[in-house]
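Good day; I would like, with your permission, to put a structural problem before you. A protein sequence and the structure tokens that stand for its backbone fold form the material at issue. Thank you for your consideration; the sequence and its tokens are set out here:
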Amino acid sequence: MPLLELSLVTEAIMFVLQTRVPEILGILEANPTSAPPDDVSEETTDNVLSLFLYHVKEDPHFRNAPPMSGGIGVPEVAQAPMGLNLYFVLTAHHKGGTSPNENTLREQLLFGGALKALHDVPVINEHTVVGGTNVFEHVNIDPGNVIEIIYRPLPPEDSISFWSSEQNSVTRLSAYYEVRTIFLRPEPPALAAAGLVLSLGTYVFTDGSPQLTRGVSRIGFALPANVGSLDRAIELSPARVALLTQDDSALIPALPSIADGNNRLDLEGTGLARDGTTLHLSSARWVEPGNPTGTIVVSRDDNPYWYAGGITAQHLVRVRVRPQVDVDAVTLDVLPGSYTARVTVSRTVTLSDPGSTRTLEMLSNAVGLTVTPQIHEVPSISDMDQSGSLTIVGDYLLHADVEVLLFIGGVAFVESSGAPAAGEFQIDAGGSLVQFELTPELDAALTPNSPLPLRLLVNGADAPPAWIERP
């Protein structure tokens, strides 16, 4: 994993110097420091090697690197690791001798040992062992990083200019190193996508053929009690249709009446009504050798509840999405996720033979839609309790093709196989109940005047808005 702390790179090189220089020179110790040469204290300058990071530059070869992982909601540049080249100056310091001549010779000895140490270990990675110790493990650098140490031979004149700001000092004996390429840790991708684009293009249709321009749905929900429990309904396109019951006669207690139409799908277009109109749905879950596109026909005869209370007109086809669909005597589950919808429009023509007719079918273009879960109820949480729950309409949360994510107050909860601890949730064996445990921070934030927004995603599809309230 890329680094977040540049200091770890300095520590890794210092460890190589600290370990290898005494081995090379046969001395008791070498004392590397990251302090600049001017700040090295005279009281602690026995066998000191100053490794000072004086410049950082972005590596141009990695400036346009692609993001390490996809995601929506975080700019792509933030998801790409930043490649850096680090520039160090190495100097030696010793003040423990009996004369300036002895100190200078000692510094030259240390300097030569340091040059050889970095020459012998030009690359540090997760397998580099120095003095019997793994360097990355010693300084706590994650595997996968590579530190490449390159000696930069400067002309004497350039070396003098480096120290030109020191008006009262002679140019120091120094060596210059480039360390590359160090990657800074990028931002993680967003867990959930927003603002989905389900179709884009310019289409050409023959005259009289069915054409879909968009799918529309209406999501109804009740606001929390602190703002008056008001009902709200939002029109959405592309459509986001919630799963309710298979039969409208089945009453759902505690579900706001405003949500009764959340399973309604309106397909708008032209040429949608002739002698018969039938809905087609496609899903990646239904792909099989005999059905490579994953498309099924929702016939009126086998699925009357889909068309109950619907509308078929030249510019509108209205159906109600149900949790199951019957196809050729086989019942398929309709789960939350992404789908595409088409319609076939049939036309019966009379042939020249008396009494003979023929039915012609025309298939429309496809529009995208999302099928979402519908939250049935979120009981309020008392002042002395951190445990809560929610139920959905249906019992599919433990289905093999379902992935569930839960966010409360903007915090991602982790699914637990047992009783949930703080910040965790568990799906009950029935497949419709989700139990969760608030964190202490969320529990303190939940008050009668400050409900917590609850976000349930199933296969990436958001349920209609819901809140956790405290009476």
Observations:
- The first helix runs from residue 7 to 25.
- Residues 70-74 have pLDDT under 50 and may be disordered.
- The helical segments are 7-25, 76-79, 100-120, 135-139, 156-162, 304-307, 440-445.
- The chain is about 15% helix and 35% strand.
